Recover the amino acids of this structure.
């Protein structure tokens, strides 16, 4: 499939979707923001969707935070004490912590949150595997007793998905979604102003007390709020969002369509820059619970059929400097990345041979249901190229196009195809999992506890556990190389390449934080 055909199709689908009507950007106390998707879930444990992660940064707080150099800093924690050769940790909460319902944040709320988080998140699972006991001996102290030392305990608790919430919410089954959004972060979620499909509103929490120490950086340090409201207006049509930015109807567009970036760079008083340096890695995710992708030989044929350059030209051809190929498990050039086996991702491909390989692997022509979001242009672009490839090598593809929120809901289903199940969905993997195995959701092979697709892979699990016990970075790198070798033999997804997503905002927005979209720290000076 040619790139121009992908782009024509993406524009046609986006234009057919309704966009909210918005007026001029409001005054200096309101930020009007266009996110990359509508907010489909309020639960940062139930889903790993980036849109929920970004909402979580506003509404919830974490015990520790990451600065822009990926170093962990205390956040809700005032201090820590480590004893018994690293097997006992006591964390003391700082003063002034309160939930948005007026209740004080207590250590038992943190314990309940950590326990729920530890059942779904890979980093949390690794921590809880080493926990003999976690308790709240007082209202301000959280105590861990570990079976063996775990120096990365603060890093695990710094995960955005370890979002501290009241015990009554944290006791929700982690396989079900929390019913409401009550956090202790710098912004409150305004449920009464929510318009599903188009609008999310946050207001400054008057009860929030920023840290008194530290340097603001990414989601660490004092979170000082300089605006009263943040309004997310989801505009699925990139051309409409671009025009709204140019005309001053919005202040900030999270993810300008890559084909529109050259045009957006010409807009007066608009900054276009990359804030998130962890990048976005393309992912064709397999459901391994049902045929045909319960067969590793069939999955290997799909991985072998991917030409990352072809996919990435469709995604980022207008800005080729933004994309990278030869992508394995981790972002090229980062410490844990390896080049072993990446030659399989290069073209050109012999589709006739791959078709024979697919039949030899045991594929019998059964329908495969493929989920693809039309409302995120980069997902729709990768989906069309990769799905076209699937058809060319012999798959009977049922490509189901929908908005991203529907993908988020559908991919959680373990049902067979005739009851709403699926075989493949497309996404982009972002965040710290692109540079470290610890929070990486896509490589795990722990069956029911794994990310959507639910793979079982004992070899990967052994290596994952060994990584945490490695004595130094060199040993960690060797383990990551072994992970990549094992991955090519038993893949959980097909890597589709990688790109850096620029963001665009008016120059009157000052001190826009590095990393994912955050609304504390910035100022609107007009």
């Amino acid at each position: 499939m040619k790139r121009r055909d992908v782009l024509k199709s993406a524009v046609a689908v986006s234009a057919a979707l309704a966009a909210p009507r918005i007026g001029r950007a409001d005054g200096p106390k309101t930020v009007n923001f266009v996110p990359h998707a509508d907010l489909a879930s309020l639960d940062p444990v139930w889903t790993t969707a980036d849109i929920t992660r970004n909402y979580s940064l506003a509404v919830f707080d974490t015990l520790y935070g990451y600065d822009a150099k990926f170093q962990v800093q205390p956040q809700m924690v005032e201090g820590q004490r480590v004893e018994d050769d690293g097997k006992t940790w006591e964390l003391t909460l700082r003063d002034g912590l309160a939930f948005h319902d007026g209740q004080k944040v207590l250590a038992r709320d943190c314990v309940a949150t950590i326990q729920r988080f530890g059942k779904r998140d890979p980093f949390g699972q690794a921590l809880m595997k080493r926990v003999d006991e976690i308790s709240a001996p007082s209202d301000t102290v959280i105590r861990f007793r570990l079976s063996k030392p775990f120096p990365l305990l603060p890093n695990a608790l710094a995960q955005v998905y370890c979002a501290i919430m009241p015990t009554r919410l944290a006791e929700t089954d982690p396989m079900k979604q929390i019913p409401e959004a009550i956090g202790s972060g710098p912004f409150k979620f305004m449920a009464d102003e929510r318009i599903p499909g188009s609008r999310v509103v946050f207001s400054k929490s008057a009860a929030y007390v920023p840290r008194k120490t530290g340097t603001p950086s990414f989601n660490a340090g004092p979170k000082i709020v300089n605006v009263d409201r943040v309004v997310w207006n989801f505009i699925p049509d990139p051309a409409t969002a671009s025009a709204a930015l140019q005309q001053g109807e919005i202040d900030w567009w999270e993810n300008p369509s890559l084909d529109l970036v050259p045009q957006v760079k010409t807009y007066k008083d608009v900054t276009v820059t990359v804030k998130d340096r962890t990048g976005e890695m393309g992912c064709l995710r397999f459901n391994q619970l049902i045929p045909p992708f319960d067969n590793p030989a069939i999955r290997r044929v799909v991985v072998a059929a991917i030409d990352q350059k072809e996919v990435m030209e469709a995604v980022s051809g207008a800005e080729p400097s933004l994309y990278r190929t030869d992508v394995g498990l981790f972002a090229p050039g980062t410490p844990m990345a390896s080049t072993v086996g990446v030659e399989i991702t290069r073209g050109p491909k012999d589709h006739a041979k791959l078709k024979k390989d697919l039949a030899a692997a045991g594929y019998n022509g059964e329908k495969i249901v493929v989920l693809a979001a039309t409302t995120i242009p980069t997902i729709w672009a990768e989906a069309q190229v990769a799905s076209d490839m699937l058809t060319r090598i012999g798959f009977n593809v049922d490509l189901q196009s929908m908005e991203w929120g529907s993908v988020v809901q559908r991919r959680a289903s373990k049902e067979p195809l005739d009851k709403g199940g699926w075989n493949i969905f497309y996404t982009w993997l972002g965040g710290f999992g692109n540079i470290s195995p610890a929070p990486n959701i896509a490589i795990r092979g722990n069956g029911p506890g794994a990310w959507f697709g639910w793979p079982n892979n004992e070899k990967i699990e052994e290596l994952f556990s060994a990584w945490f016990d490695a004595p130094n970075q060199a040993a960690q790198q060797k383990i990551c190389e072994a992970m990549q070798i094992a991955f090519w033999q038993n893949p959980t997804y097909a890597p589709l390449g990688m790109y850096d997503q620029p963001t665009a905002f008016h120059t009157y927005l000052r001190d826009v934080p590095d990393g994912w979209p955050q609304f504390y720290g910035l100022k609107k000076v007009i």
Q: What stands out?
A: The first helix runs from residue 3 to 15.
